[in-house]
Design a protein that fits this description.
With about 425 residues, the protein is α/β, with parallel strands linked by helices. The chain is about 25% helix and about 35% strand. The protein folds into 2 domains: about 200 residues, Rossmann fold; about 150 residues, Coagulation Factor XIII, Chain A, domain 1.
């Protein structure tokens, strides 16, 4: 499809766009939060609204979320936007959705935009699902008659007919996603913008949504911009791929080449600094902050072969003494799929201040390939409830390989065989 782009109409034109934020000055989200932050700075105290891992010394400095973006998106394209956390994906979509304005550069948009940047974007929690459909349609400039004509189709697709006249503040996150996506997909907008929102919905609904977005581009001629960490959905939906890294476009082209470029960008060295990484979870208490993780006995890239274990030294800071501390790893494949999960027993006890622990994990059953790991520090109370202290997405990455001559095994392809490499099947005499 890429070779014919010059002959297509332009849907979005981004020219020299930069977005600059001033760190530590504004942006608490509410007047109360901004006043709290200001009063903490006056007293020389820690900002109660700062993100875990942020550097208090950066007050007054600037951060370039986007640093010179040039893009052309054509009508009828389904474009995937990928990149690591902090690469600028969500910022770009907010600019395109006109949630915020660029610091420099220009954005030309030819058509109406329907966007879902997070669960329930644009919904009024006090209004019913039906009322929110009318609200979203009005925002897009549609008349009541036009919305009435679409209403039955929206309700049917959303699978929330029973609750359509219930205030959406009572909806679960999955119900929110179903209705919000249905509204965005069926109202008359020429451009659909989606930011990882389908991760909340169930598997059957995700499949239905992907089919709907694919039809929107191929059949209806609408433009779809989709951000996801799941490479399989990017492959299934998109015709073209854009890779962002540190606020810049580092690749534009076909999907498979874009994914390969992205995975090469994610190669990690022996020491992984996690202190400055953005924490996306809102339910962590911050009593533990992981500073860095270091692969033990690896002098270069963390590459493991059959029989080897991951041995990882984790350095962290605690704000108070914590008992029954545990760590959890969620292992993801290079495609973005969850390959598995591993935990420690909640037996670690740490004192206030700097602490270290060495974690080991055998990889015997893990199939060859590239993986990245979400790192979670939590504790378990006497009632069995978990308290999250720190959650770092994509904390570190590693690779497992296998030589084709080892154990007479064939070359492994994850897309064919999966992420678990079972031991050899035994043959028993009858």
């Amino acid at each position: 499809m890429a070779e014919n782009l010059e002959n297509k109409e332009i849907a979005v034109k981004v020219s020299g766009v930069k977005k600059k934020y001033k760190l530590g000055q504004i942006g608490g989200g509410t007047l109360q939060a901004d006043l709290q932050s200001w009063w903490a700075r006056v007293r020389g105290k820690e900002d109660p609204n700062s993100k875990i891992g942020s550097d208090q010394r950066s007050n007054g400095k600037t951060f370039m979320a986007l640093n010179g973006i040039d893009l052309t998106i054509y009508k009828g394209e389904a474009v995937g936007i990928i990149g690591s956390n902090g690469a600028g994906k969500s910022t770009l979509l907010k600019l395109l959705s006109r949630v915020t304005a660029p610091t420099e550069g220009s954005i030309d948009i030819y058509g109406r935009i329907a966007s879902m940047l997070e669960v329930g974007t644009g919904f009024n929690p006090e209004m019913t699902g039906r009322e929110n459909v009318y609200l979203n349609g009005a925002i897009l400039g549609m008349t009541k008659a036009e919305i009435d004509a679409k209403m039955e189709e929206i309700i049917e697709f959303s699978e929330v007919r029973e609750f359509i006249d219930t205030p959406v503040k009572r909806y679960s996150s999955g119900m929110f996603v179903k209705l919000a996506f249905s509204v965005a997909a069926h109202l008359d907008a020429e451009i659909m913008i989606m930011d990882e929102v389908l991760a909340v919905g169930d598997m059957a609904f995700q499949t239905k949504c992907l089919d709907k977005m694919r039809d929107a581009a191929n059949v209806d001629g609408r433009t779809v911009l989709y951000v996801s960490h799941n490479m399989n959905t990017i492959r299934r939906l998109c015709d073209r791929c854009i890779v962002l890294d540190k606020g810049k476009v580092v690749f534009q082209g076909d999907v498979d080449s874009g994914i390969e470029h992205y995975m090469n960008c994610k190669k990690t060295m022996q020491i992984c600094n996690t202190y400055g990484k953005t924490r996306e979870r809102k339910d962590i208490d911050g009593n533990i902050v992981v500073k860095q993780s270091t692969f033990v006995d690896k002098t270069n890239l963390p590459i493991f072969k059959i029989g080897e274990k991951i041995k990882l030294k984790v350095d962290f800071i605690t704000k108070k003494e914590i008992s029954h501390l545990a760590f959890r790893w969620t292992v993801h494949s290079s495609e973005g799929d969850r390959a598995g999960m591993a935990t420690t027993k909640p037996i670690i006890k740490c004192h206030e201040g700097s602490n270290s622990v060495i974690l080991t994990l055998p990889l015997d059953w893990l199939a060859p390939g590239k993986y990245y790991v979400d790192l979670v520090a939590y504790s378990v109370n006497k009632y069995g409830s978990n308290q999250l202290h720190d959650v770092i997405n994509e904390a570190f990455a590693f690779e497992k390989y296998i030589l084709t001559e080892e154990n007479n095994r064939m070359e492994w392809h994850q897309s064919w065989w999966g992420y678990v490499m079972f031991p050899e099947i035994e043959v028993l005499d009858l």
